[in-house]
Design goal:
Layout: H1 2-16, E1 22-43, E2 52-72, E3 76-84, E4 89-101, E5 107-132, E6 136-154, E7 161-179, E8 184-195, E9 198-201, E10 207-224
Antiparallel strand pairs: 1-2, 1-10, 2-3, 3-5, 4-5, 5-6, 6-7, 7-8, 8-10, 9-10
């Protein structure tokens, strides 16, 4: 996917360069309303058989900053940029009461819990689109998202776990941008980010896997230079 995005961005840049009427740099902030769906699976002995599944949804607001460059032609335009979330986003803690058979005569009952934090989230994106009027553009978004996810797990049958792994995803969406005479830029975006599956294995060989998908409606305000 990354190779195709690179080829697409390069091709579009070459197509637009002969007809470009202006290129502008924009710096701004974004506030987004997010709905993060997590599909969790548990393989108790890592033998390839799924022993339990659970799907949860977290709704939250988050702020970010962005930097982008837009090249506009007579009818089409291309934006290349990066969006960075300077804050950590917490995934709500989930708990379940379970029993663990330690040996043939001892049964332990307690609470298993898992919680996560997404850190250093950044998205590299391109937005090819069509000019709408003199100062507006309707566009599609194609991007690559990267972050770290830290998972803390408390288990009655194994030692507690605190582990950080890479989180990669692909972002697709549509949006609308308008530029005022003062250089004020206003953007409205709807996007879906599908992340690669991440997995963790506890000390007692239990493998937990999470598949994350995030939809977002975002409002961005920036200044064009």
């Amino acid at each position: 996917m990354k190779k195709y995005l690179l080829i697409l961005s390069t091709t579009l840049a070459l197509l637009f360069s002969p007809i470009a009427s202006f290129a502008e740099v924009t710096v701004g902030v974004t506030i987004s309303s997010n709905s993060l769906d997590t599909a969790g699976k548990e393989d108790v002995d890592s033998n390839g058989t799924i022993d339990d599944t659970k799907n949860v949804t977290d709704d939250f607001m988050v702020g970010s900053v962005f930097f982008e460059n837009t090249v506009m032609g007579d009818t089409m335009g291309l934006t290349i940029g990066v969006d960075y979330i300077p804050f950590d986003a917490d995934i709500d803690k989930r708990s379940i009461t379970q029993s663990s058979l330690k040996d043939s005569s001892t049964v332990t009952t307690g609470t298993n819990s898992v919680e996560g934090t997404v850190e250093g989230h950044k998205t590299f994106y391109i937005q090819p689109g069509f000019r709408y009027g003199d100062n507006s553009m309707i566009y599609a978004t194609l991007g690559i998202a990267r972050a770290d996810i830290n998972v803390k797990n408390s288990s009655i049958s194994s030692t507690d776990m605190n582990k950080t792994v890479d989180l990669d995803g692909t972002k697709l969406g549509v949006g609308f941008k308008t530029v005022k005479d003062s250089g004020l830029v206003i953007k409205l975006d709807y996007t879906d980010t599908s992340y690669d599956e991440v997995s963790f294995t506890t000390s007692n060989n239990t493998k937990a896997t999470a598949d994350l998908d995030n939809t977002a409606l975002a409002l961005s305000i920036g200044k064009q230079f």
